[in-house]
Amino acid sequence: MFCRLKLLFNTIRYLKIKQIYFRIYYRFKKLKPLFLEKGSTVTLSYQFDWHGVCYAPQSVFNDNTAKFLNETASIKATTIWNDESKEKLWLYNLHYLDDLNSVGAEDRCEQHLHFIHRWIDENPPVHGSGWVPYTLSLRLVNLVKWCCRNKVYDHKILTSILQQADALEQQFEYHILANHLFANAKALVFIGVFLGDSLGKKFLTKGLHVLKQEMNEQFLSDGAHFELSPMYHSVLLWDVLELIDLAVITSEQTLATEINQWKKIAEKGIYWLNSMCHPDDEISFFNDAASGIAPRPAIIREYANKLGICKNVISREQIVSMQVSGYTRVNLKSAGSVLLINHTEIQPSYQPGHAHADTLSFELSLLGHRVFVNTGTSQYGLGDERNRQRSTLSHNTLNIDNKDSSEVWNGFRVARRAKITEYSYNITEEKQIVSVAHDGYTRIDKSLIHQRMFTSEKGKLVISDSLANANKVNANARYHIHPSVKIVKFSDSSAQLKLPNDVVVEVKVSGGKMSRHMYNYFPEFGLKIGSEFIEVRMSDSELDFIITWKE
What we know:
By secondary structure, the protein is α+β, with helices and mostly antiparallel strands. The protein has helices at residues 2-12, 17-28, 88-96, 109-122, 133-150, 155-170, 178-194, 197-218, 230-250, 253-256, 259-275, 297-306, 384-390; strands at 60-61, 65-68, 71-74, 319-322, 327-331, 338-342, 362-366, 369-372, 398-400, 408-409, 413-414, 420-427, 432-438, 450-457, 460-466, 475-480, 486-490, 494-498, 504-510, 512-524, 527-538, 542-549. The longest helix is centred in the middle third of the chain and has 22 residues, at 197-218. The N and C termini lie far apart (56 Å).
């Protein structure tokens, strides 16, 4: 009981007063459904054309099945929307109605019209998973885009849109903040432009007011979204692009004044995203991150180019230091070889729901192939597996006594957090050096500062871990191997890894002994691929993990 109370205290103390207030307020507040008088109509401001980019694959099919998060299931039953046998996240995806704006959606207009009517009939106002604010936000944007793209202004749909917008406006997620509040505000802006009369203006005014505040807070000066997940960064960057598109298409005066600022945010955001990608042009897996949720980086750049936003290619500097967000990209001297280093702290401090205990972890690609990777994210919710995926043990870094560098717990919470105590980098004619340190384990012993140095030169990378009093604790470093890379030779001091192109990578250790183990790699939600990791038991105060390769 005492330990749990301590966890709670060290979690709650980071929250904003606003979050605590609204958490209590919403616990007792009852949503009031909006019902229009018989014979009343919904006024549209004007019927604009929406030609935004469609990127999501088809997810709802004519045989009454749907596929989300790599799971296909029947949706024939009217009870499917709140089926307790299904994962919450799967159900939320069903409620988003993303299929309305998926690839090839223009050929399925009649199917979508029927599906929207079905959603309205089977989800009465303010009841069930479809009426929680985040699902409302994503669905409302999808409905507006679909109506405008297909020139469908069905009275039943318009009435439901108004009801949903009113329900959203009553429960803005001030208790959660971060990307949820951004999504709420974006939805009201779309609705406010779409609808006419004073009600539309009210929605637009509120949505834009919140957006102005959140744009400034959520996007950092180096371009990163402040939750420091490449996946969520991509999601929020797409939101910014769609807002720019909306402003351009509609010429709405209140949005036009924001376009220049939004474009600057998008330009910096694309630069940061490019810097956080591997040579395969896909995102790295730091914090909550997986492929298949956000638009791919290439599609984001395509949309940005369509809107006249600078492409911002990846910097070819030897070291790209993103110190504000806490990442460093090292462009190694071998073609197609990149080292990505995480020296972040938990951000934002008041909303750590998508943070992992992955301080000083890294990912490495050599000659165009991922070699060492963080294990990815396959699920949300509560439970041991969610906690395991957020743990230090699931990342390429040092752990002590199998404890986490930051205390992740209960699915989306973090108590005591690691702080960065050192960060520097240096470039010489022959070498690139990045030095970082954190104090996450000083709660065990004040001397346990973990210092890690990355030293790279042509064909070689040395990862050096330093830890005072290492002999007094159980200190182990893990290095998770991408499933496409195979261990072909192994001993307790060296190993050979074969890349998909048959290049052999040599690994040696000094100051510890290696062992090999199996783990599950999660490149997408609901997708599991077996692979191996190397674990090194630290026996001295310094451990060197030496990687060499030939082109």
